[in-house]
Amino acid sequence: MGRRLVRVIIPVLALASVVALAGQQIRPIQHETRTVNIEVPVRVFKGDAFVDRLSIADFEIYENGVPQTLDAVYLVKKASIERQEGTHAGAPDTGRHFYLFFELVEYDPKVADALDYFVQRVLANGDELIVVTPVKTYRMKSDILKSATRDMVLAKLLGLLRRDTLIGNAEYQDVLHEMTSLATAVGASVGGVSGSTVDTARQAMGDPFAAVDTMYESQRSVEEQLQLYADCLSRLEHIRKLDAVQVDGLANFVRDQPGQKEIFLFYQREYIPKIDPSVMNALMSIYNQRPEVTQTLSGIFDFFHRDIGVEVEAVKRLYADAGAAIHFLYLTRPAPKMRGLTMEEASEDIFSPFREMARATGGYIASTANLSAAMRSAIAAAENYYLLYYTPKDYRADGKFRSLEVRVKGEGLRTTYRLGYIAD
Question: 3-state SS string over 310-325?
Answer without folding.
Answer: CCHHHHHHHHHHCCEE
